[in-house]
């Protein structure tokens, strides 16, 4: 009996693999929700503009509030994820984001739109620190790039299906119903995660291991440069994602369905590109050069889109190719952050660099909203080209050789 009681519980490799797959699956579903919620408001811009009788700058301000709220809270949420547990922070974010959209659907006004955007921003600040802290702790090291790519793919997929899903909800339930239904997804997924269960990030284990370790700042030069890199990535994509449909309709004569198809191709191909990028991230250290190459080609493609009114088939194909290349860099981008993060600080590191996304989110809605209100839809794509060129230059300037990386380590 004593031997039975004292015998340690053994975990088979299959059990460990199943636990990893379950964790990756549920974390990826949560990331799907985060991107779906990000695109819920922009996809309802025509409805909100008509109902609230406001311009695109006022609607863009809501996205700026979203980004500001997320940006201010991103690093603190990363600290909480590292010290209080990433799992409970994730569940709270899912419920808060869903509740904000439901509240807006029940009481539609401009002031509530701004309040909803602020709460959505706070909820959005949860996903990157919490998700990446859990994945970094529990995924197989040799397949970390692919795990990150699946996680990112799920997020991109959430954004890719948002135009079609929101359009379907708008047609069947109206704008109010679309907001309520989109919001309800968050608490439902939180309930699923709570019932099925996922492991937490090992905050207690990290604290124990770090007792004798020298203290080091989380904000390193490498993470500072990555924050700027994330800022440029955000500015490169935000105009297309948030104002691409209205720009194509007003500046290129595209129909609503045609413009939505082009944007869906861009976002959907981005998700596919992420999976290809995951394989690449596990087999190369030249992440900066991969980014530079992809965005250089992207800039050329979008320059053609900006300058020429392409027929629908070519437009959809060009947007799809641009989206694919945009997705390829995402897993390498995440691996760069993980490699640069101090030990036990993955949540804070991802929280810090993700602030670059949020700064871009603060600037881009006002910038591209101003562009649209000045009736310059071609510059939605032209501006994206400018930011992509800057992204290429930064990626090349900050790329280090494998030898220098080894020496720095």
Describe this protein's structure.
The protein has 409 residues and is mainly alpha-helical. It has a single domain (20-202, 216-401), classed as Up-down Bundle (Growth Hormone, Chain: A). Helices cover 85% and strands 0% of the residues. It contains 15 helices and no strands. α7 (144-196) crosses α12. The protein is globular, with a radius of gyration of 21 Å.
Features:
409 residues; mainly alpha; Growth Hormone, Chain: A; 15 helices; disordered C terminus
Instruction: Please tally the helical runs, counting DSSP H or I stretches of 4 or more residues.
Output: 15
**Domain count:** 1
For the record, the CATH class is Mainly Alpha
Can you name the CATH architecture? Up-down Bundle
User: What structural class is derived from the secondary structure elements?
Assistant: mainly alpha
Helix content: over 70%
- Order of helices and strands, N to C? HHHHHHHHHHHHHHH
User: How would you name the CATH homologous superfamily?
Assistant: MFS general substrate transporter like domains
Give the percentage of residues in beta strands.
Answer: under 5%
Most strands sheet:
none
Indicate the CATH topology.
Growth Hormone, Chain: A
